[in-house]
Fold this protein.
Amino acid sequence: MSFGANDSVVASKPAAPADAGPGTINRYFRGVLYGVVKHAARLVMRGVYRAKVFGVESVPDTGGMLIAANHQSYIDPPGIGCLPKRRLSYIAQSGLFKFKPFGWVIEALGSIAIRQDSGDAGAIKEVIRRLEMGDAVLIFPEGSRCETGEMEEFKRGVALLVKRAKVPVVPVAIEGAFKAWPRQKKLPKVWGQRVWVSFGKPIAYEELMKDGADGAMVRLKKEIGELQQALRAKMEGHQAPGTGH
């Protein structure tokens, strides 16, 4: 599926009640900001990176769930997050919050700061709280952007999170983002790049955990890897002579 010309998330932004208190007003503006950023991300993905999306309709519209993706570049969070109809929360490295204006923006967009150099019980507790409220949380099990474009080992803390969360997990692969903005470059390429995303079917908690937490990580990495390889094959076929593209 490609983005439709009439894709818009701004038109459905919530109306602020006339008698709303400070907390309601704050939530309202956070909702508006999320809608604007989501719409802008869709425009960039469609207009700059010629995005194609597969399987996004398999993401349930309601209910707590983890959405687990490979991590190629800074493009990944907005590039994946702008695709499902529902609003997502995100896990982000605590270092990204150090620059206060940017930290305020990503916190307002639903990001949860996590420290990777040690067990962050507070962050895991907040993720579980949001899942219990029915939120969808986007995670990158590798913990940070890959070095070569290939998926790296998953962090041990992800197994703990999945075990404690007790929610379905949706595997997702993104491809092309590493070429568009590799870790070694300060700025992204904006011409001649393509970024495609593929969503897999939700994996029920009981199914994922049937071989234990370690087995769950093996299964999840396999699912994401297969989605990524299928994307690569499609992208290579899209470029091949005689395809008409």
Q: What stands out?
A: The longest strand covers residues 169-175. Helices lie at 22-47, 76-81, 100-108, 121-132, 156-165, 177-180, 205-208, 212-239.
